[in-house]
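Exercise: predict the fold of this chain.
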Amino acid sequence: MISIGMGILIGLMVGFLIAYLLLNKTASKRFEYIEAQAKAKAKVIESESQILLEEAKVAIKKEELRFEKKINHKMSDIEKLENSINNQKNDLNIFEDNLSKFSQYLEDKEKKLEKLEEEKKNAIDKNLQILSEKISLTQTEAKSYILTEIENKCKNDIASIVRKYEKIAKEEAEKKANYILAQATTRYAGEFAGERLINIVTLPTDEHKGRIIGKEGRNIKALEMLLGVDIIIDETPNTIIVSGFNLYRRAIATKVIEILVEDGRIHPARIEDVFEKVNQEFEQKIYEEGKNILIDLGQPPMHDELTKMLGKLRYRASYGQNALAHTLEVANLASIMAAEMGGDEKLAQRAGLLHDIGKALTQELGGSHVDIGAEFCKRYNENPVIINAIYAHHGNEDPKTIESAAVCTADILSAARPGARREVLESFTKRVKDLEDIAMSKENVEQAYAINAGREIRVIVNAKKVDDSEALLLSREIASEIESNVQYPAEIKVNVIRETRAISFAK
């Protein structure tokens, strides 16, 4: 039993020993593997370190070169600056030398002047001595004699100087008087003139003035030529003035400029595009306005052309009175009076609306607004009572109906109302209209605009039919006819313009 137990113990011990030896051998191999792996990693790390070291050396070298180049550049700048300073020092030294020479020159001149003054004094004393000896005068008497002679010789010069300054004083007095009169006139009529003859356009900034003028004035020339108005750009901040006697033309010009300023693109081609668009919009606008007037008054529809002309009366003035406001006033008064007298109030109202319809066309066609208005209404088959009212309100015919008589009476009442009309403006607008009519009557004239408050007439001719010499003769012919037929203050500039355009399309 004991021997069996000893055998088992010995067997266990032998097994443990064998297991120990096996484990020890395995651990030794694993250690060798780990050691070899660690050595390999260490070699890789050493290699990477070497690469990083080389890259760092290269970067340091590049940085040294860049820094050296920068230093060289700075040194070059410093050298240039030193050269510039040295040059300036040389210039300063030259200037100081020249200044010194000039000072010496002035001193020499001063000495010469002192010497000449002394010589002059000695010469005067000598002449006085000779004069006193020759004519038995003392030096005091001789001196007095010479001064008297000099005074007599200078009298003419003095008189000329006096006349000169008297003339200057007179001119200044006239300017002052004119200024006072202008101030008084401005206070009395400035608001009226501004309302009737100008529109003010507000700009976002003063820079837009330069853009409106354009390079070498191309934009403002294109605007004035196309729109037929005078564009005034002065020192008033953020403001330009559109001037012209034709209200419709002026309203279109104002709208065109406002659109161009808002859009920002201002050049001749763009100006033409915007003008065409605004012109069409205004045509539609005046038609809509005429249509709305008929609707508000409860009138039956008119022909489209009559409706358009009714709306256009808003942009027409007669003796300072707005034509549309006058028309509506006459229409309402005529309607009330016809109703009181037992007539047709709607027909009287319609006759009142159309009695001055010719005024919407006189600025384009010329002639009597009575004849133009009557023919216009006949063309579109308006009631004969309306035709009679148009002729009768200016005495061309006797009123044949209550409605015609009501229109005549209402027209007189509207015109006679205190403050309704101003004769001065009407004579002015008639004068500038006459200028345009004279120019348009000439052959090959395409457009004519009276601008600059009637002091200039701008005439645009067909460049294919009128050459430069003919343009000169045309301007003289128009100026001669204006002198013969128009009463005006100061002078009127006749400006004939011929322009050739070449247009092609890339397709």
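Check your answer against the key: Residues 101 and 157 are 41 Å apart (CA to CA).
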